[in-house]
């Protein structure tokens, strides 16, 4: 199980490769997972935004979880289980636990606009699943904002082990990382180095599907007090990060993974579409 003590470092939300007809490409997935293991990452996230969770069927997610569990050995496995139904999220979290997950990444309930009290009760109920929970706050995707008081209340819950902060607000990050006792992880790749300087404990970073060991180096250098080295390596990664988020994630990421030969196709499932030809031109320098 993941705990608040070992929720540290670089966690990679792995992409879900599809073939040209949109079917799961299991061979590419296994290759991807095997490539990530052994590069110093602290764990793998399956069924995140980057894994295109909205268009993955339950049977497919089951296969992705079971395969990852088998391939990564004892490395922590986090599964995205959040939805905008509390009961469904609790069920899915219990199911992920039964398949070998070490923790659940639970996004705040989107679309139906719950009150702050509703959000607190949502996270209380998920404790029934018996799996450690990482709260995922990403208001620009969910349409839901958490008050600082709400985050603080949720972070005191026993089964909650940390926060993935993706508001993009570095002042808020600084405030949270210093005031709550549990780890705050960066979910806004461009702010990774800044988040470490604010007291963050690591990141769940789509960009780390590529150049993984450099992302780990940013984290590790910072931990041993080599702040300048950490910042220098991060600066080298910035053009990659900016390219990967120049169009909806994970379209540029899948394109570059395919260009570098890590997956067979850059296919996505609608409504996500492939990177534009303009994007391909910009990305050509990063191949
Ligand atoms: O899948 C994830 O986890 C992430 N998704 C974010 C997004 O697509 O908005 C980005 C972050 O790197 C991790």
From TrEMBL:
<keyword id="KW-0704">Schiff base</keyword>
<comment type="function">
    <text>Catalyzes the condensation of (S)-aspartate-beta-semialdehyde [(S)-ASA] and pyruvate to 4-hydroxy-tetrahydrodipicolinate (HTPA).</text>
</comment>
<keyword id="KW-0456">Lyase</keyword>
<feature type="active site" description="Proton donor/acceptor">
    <location>
        <position position="136"/>
    </location>
</feature>
<dbReference type="InterPro" id="IPR020624">
    <property type="entry name" value="Schiff_base-form_aldolases_CS"/>
</dbReference>
<keyword id="KW-0028">Amino-acid biosynthesis</keyword>
<dbReference type="InterPro" id="IPR013785">
    <property type="entry name" value="Aldolase_TIM"/>
</dbReference>
<feature type="site" description="Part of a proton relay during catalysis">
    <location>
        <position position="49"/>
    </location>
</feature>
<feature type="site" description="Part of a proton relay during catalysis">
    <location>
        <position position="111"/>
    </location>
</feature>
<dbReference type="InterPro" id="IPR002220">
    <property type="entry name" value="DapA-like"/>
</dbReference>
<dbReference type="InterPro" id="IPR005263">
    <property type="entry name" value="DapA"/>
</dbReference>
<dbReference type="InterPro" id="IPR020625">
    <property type="entry name" value="Schiff_base-form_aldolases_AS"/>
</dbReference>
<dbReference type="Pfam" id="PF00701">
    <property type="entry name" value="DHDPS"/>
</dbReference>
<feature type="binding site">
    <location>
        <position position="50"/>
    </location>
    <ligand>
        <name>pyruvate</name>
    </ligand>
</feature>
<feature type="active site" description="Schiff-base intermediate with substrate">
    <location>
        <position position="164"/>
    </location>
</feature>
<keyword id="KW-0963">Cytoplasm</keyword>
<feature type="binding site">
    <location>
        <position position="204"/>
    </location>
    <ligand>
        <name>pyruvate</name>
    </ligand>
</feature>
<protein>
    <recommendedName>
        <fullName>4-hydroxy-tetrahydrodipicolinate synthase</fullName>
        <ecNumber>4.3.3.7</ecNumber>
    </recommendedName>
</protein>
<comment type="similarity">
    <text>Belongs to the DapA family.</text>
</comment>
<keyword id="KW-0457">Lysine biosynthesis</keyword>
<keyword id="KW-0220">Diaminopimelate biosynthesis</keyword>
<comment type="subunit">
    <text>Homotetramer; dimer of dimers.</text>
</comment>
<comment type="pathway">
    <text>Amino-acid biosynthesis; L-lysine biosynthesis via DAP pathway; (S)-tetrahydrodipicolinate from L-aspartate: step 3/4.</text>
</comment>
């Amino acid at each position: 199980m993941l705990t608040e003590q070992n929720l540290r470092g670089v966690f990679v939300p792995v992409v879900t490769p599809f073939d040209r007809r949109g079917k799961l490409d299991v061979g590419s997935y296994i290759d991807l997972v095997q490539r990530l293991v052994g590069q110093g990452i602290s764990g793998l996230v399956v069924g995140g935004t980057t894994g295109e969770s909205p268009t993955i069927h339950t049977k497919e997610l089951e296969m992705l979880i079971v395969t990852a569990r088998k391939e990564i050995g004892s490395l922590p496995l986090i599964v995205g289980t959040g939805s905008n139904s509390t009961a469904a999220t609790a069920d899915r979290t219990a199911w992920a636990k039964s398949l070998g997950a070490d923790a659940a990444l639970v996004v705040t309930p989107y679309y139906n606009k719950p009150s702050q009290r509703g959000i607190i009760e949502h996270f209380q109920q998920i404790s029934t699943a018996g799996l450690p929970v990482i709260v995922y706050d990403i208001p620009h995707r969910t349409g839901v904002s958490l008050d600082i008081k709400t985050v603080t209340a949720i972070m005191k819950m026993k089964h909650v082990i940390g926060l993935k902060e993706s508001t993009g607000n570095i002042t808020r990050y600084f405030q949270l990382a210093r005031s709550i006792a549990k780890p705050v992880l960066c979910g806004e790749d461009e702010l990774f180095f800044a988040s470490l300087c604010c007291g963050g404990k690591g990141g769940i970073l789509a960009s780390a599907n590529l150049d993984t060991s450099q992302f780990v180096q940013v984290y590790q250098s910072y931990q041993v007090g080599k702040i300048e080295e950490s910042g220098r390596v991060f600066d080298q990664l910035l053009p990659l990060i900016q390219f990967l988020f120049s169009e909806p994630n994970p379209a540029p990421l899948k394109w570059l993974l395919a260009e570098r030969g890590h997956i067979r196709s850059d296919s996505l499932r609608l409504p996500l579409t492939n990177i534009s030809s303009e994007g391909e031109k910009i990305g050509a320098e990063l191949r």
